[in-house]
Amino acid sequence: MTQFLSLLLNGISLGAIYALIALGFVIIFKASEVVSFTQGSLLLLGAYTIARLSKPFGFWLAALAGIAVTALAALIVERLIINRLRGAPVISLAIVTIGVDIILLTELIRRIGSDILNVPHPWGGRSFRIGDVGISQNRLIAIIVAGVLIAVFFAAFKYSSWGVAMRASAEDGETAALMGIRLGRVSALAWIVAGALAAVAATFLVGAPTPGVSPAVYGVALRAFPAAILGGLDSTGGALVGGLLIGLAESFAAGYQDQLLFLGRGFGDVVPYVVMIVVLLVRPSGLFGTKELTRV
Amino acid sequence: MSESTATQTRGATRATRTSTAPRRSPVRLIVMAVVLVLALIAPLYVEEFWLRTGFAVFGAIVGAIGLNLLVGTTGQLSLAHAFFLAVGAITYVYVSGESGGIGIVKLGGLGWPPLVGLILGVLLAGLAGLLFSPIAARLRGIYLGVASLGLVFIGQHLLNTWTSVTGGFNGRAAPKFSLFGFQFANKDPLLFIAGVEFREAERLWYLGLVIALAAYVFARNLLRSRPGRALQTLRDSEVAASVMGVNVQRYKGRVFLVSSMYAGLSGVLYALSIGSIAPESFGLEVSIQYLAMIVLGGLGSVGGAALGALFISAMPLVFQKYADVLPFVGVAGQGGLAAGEAARFLYGFAIILVILFEPAGLAGLARRFRRRGRDPGGGAAAAPEPEPTSRSTTDVPSDRPAQGSST
Q: How far apart are CA A100 and CA B397, in angstroms?
């Protein structure tokens, strides 16, 4: 029971981090119809910046700088490439983000090399205990921060003029443009937010129990993809649910590894994908995605 | 409706072919003939490195053509190509390999003739594609792309854990190819042609050439036939396709089958070319490389896919060989880029530039060049459409492939 509770708690924290990244995917998809494969390397960029800058400037400034750099990088990608391709086929857009991803990832991996860069979180690697159930403080803070950020995001999405503009342009871009909504600006803002969310996720992803910034972090970021798809690519609520589901599934699969030995060691790493494929088999547009309507 | 359009298309094709054939074919035929002759006599003159690179390129060409049928022609984004490559390679190695053990690792193997291994590799990869196709057929473009991403990671997991078949993390050696007793190895029989000893590299070169040519011809013919037209319609608009009488689900399944069979064959060739297989040879990066090949070559164009495969698969090898001559390539950690990194940067940029400025890729550039030769100024509006012959009916809106399927 203790093990179960502790896995549950860790799953939720991992899920909260996934939800942040998945939310980024969803925002970008809603605003510019792009499935951004760049998200993984943006996250790594954030993590790398934080790790490199925290020695001279301390953690807090470095974290801020990391978020700013990542958001800026996302904005540059949007302005330089995505904005020019408005109306291009979805597949071309996805492939172009893969191109960006290759470049960014190659450069980052080259810089990181085989080291593991340490990020000195002020809360350190201590763990927090409620009875026998333990969780690292880093992950506990991640739950809180992610919760707050997600709440703020949903409020903004619902009530702010940016949120309204974005929902309108996602619903019907042309009409929204005719109503005076500047699609370019909505899309740029969406990329900035997605970049910032990825960097925040990165901050927690590279803390305990993960050793630090290494190219492996990229693989973790990729697992937020199933989270976004699972919930439905155009559903922000879906991203949240998908993230939690994937986080829990991964945590349990890793925790009960010994009972699942027949599936092979390290099954926890692929369980997000298995869950995703199973869900897609039943619901091709994800759990909360809009069903495809065909108008003739 | 379907019938009349089909005949119309066929008629139009014949018309364009007869009208342009006299003007276009001499140059084209001569170029093709020269390339073929050069490829045939290359082993007599070229050193082993280039022959080995060539064989790797032939393998990549087969894979790229297969992926192109799926992504370029049918508009189904797939990142699972590496997985199907792995299925083909593993099957070949398992079926034709001897059972035995390296250290504590016990390896299974059937020890059947390599030709059987190759065929089974292709068939099993096709089967894997067919098994995945019910999922694929239900998903729209981009969901499929991400779902197929999952396949790569599941494949990686299998490769790492199913040790008795795959050799686990360290992989296992691939048996040498042989055809009815003729070994594709350094001896058995010793072979001299025109005074040149035909060793493994020379023999494999011809094997690769034949297979790549067959793959090319088959794909071209497929695209020009009724199923090929159906697939292109499917890409432009699923609704239109089904109205025309194309069974959307079934065609999506079939194209997955064909594409993954191509991938399986390519995987076998890969195993032969490297001489061994390991999980890391079939990671996500490989899928992305194949995607880069077909984007660079031009989505939907068979020849373009072959060209793209040539560039992307040969680049790292060539960079490696000339690392000390090329200005920006050097030894990793000493300021220079490692050959693999330089290649990745290059094709990363190539993907972006191609999609931004020439969505029809190298094939589009070639077409533009040809058109300009014919009527000056008229080639500027080269649109990203794969088959020039099909333009007559599909017309301009087909410039937006996946768009139709995603709304």
A: 27
Which residue of A lies nearest to B169 if distances are taken between CA atoms? A265
- B400 pLDDT band, cuts 50/70/90, is very low
Rounded average pLDDT over A205-217: 78
Q: Radius of gyration over alpha carbons of chain A, in Å?
A: 19
Residue A165 lies in a domain: yes
**Contact flag A281-B145 (C-beta cutoff 8 Å):** no
Say which of B345, B356, B403 has its CB closest to residue A103: B345
Q: Tokens 């450069």 label which residue?
A: A107
Average pLDDT over all residues of chain B: 75
Give the global pTM. 0.81
pLDDT of A73 > 90? The answer is yes
Any idea which of A76-90, B51-65, B159-173 has the lowest mean pLDDT?
B159-173
Q: Give the gap in angstroms from C-alpha B302 to the nearest C-alpha of chain A.
A: 18
**Chain B residues within an 8 Å CB radius of A294:** 238-239
Residues of B in contact with A226 (CB under 8 A): 146, 150
- Residue A140, domain extent: 2-214
Mean pLDDT of A193-199: 91
Does residue A253 lie within any of the structural domains? no
Are the C-beta atoms of residues B80 and B149 closer than 8 Å to each other?
A: yes
pLDDT for position B289: 86
Q: What is the DSSP letter of B375?
A: S
* pLDDT (0 to 100) of residue B329: 63
More confident residue, B91 or B316: B91
pLDDT at B394: 37
Contact at CB, A276 and B150, closer than 8 angstroms: yes
At residue A224's C-alpha, the angle toward residues A221 and A229, to 5°, is 145
Give the nearest partner residue to A292 out of B77, B135, B140, using CB atoms.
Answer: B140
Q: What is the ipTM of this complex?
A: 0.82
Phi-psi region of B245 (alpha: psi -120 to 50; beta: other; left: phi over 0): left
Query: Is some CB atom of chain B closer than 8 A to the CB atom of A86?
Result: no
Q: Is A99 on the interface with B (CB under 8 A)?
A: yes
Q: How close, in Å, is residue B90 to chain A by CA atoms?
A: 18
Domain count, chain A: 1
Interface of A with B in 160-199 (CB under 8 A): none
Query: Cis peptide before B189, with omega less than 30 degrees from 0?
Result: yes
Does some domain include residue A99? yes
Q: How many residues does chain A have?
A: 296
Q: Angle at Cα B16 formed by Cα B305 and Cα B21, nearest 5°?
A: 80
Bridging pattern class, strands B276-277 and B178-179: unpaired
CA distance B368 to B360: 10
Residues written for chain B = 407
**C-beta separation of B263 from B106 below 8 A:** no
Structure-token match 């090929």, residue found: B228
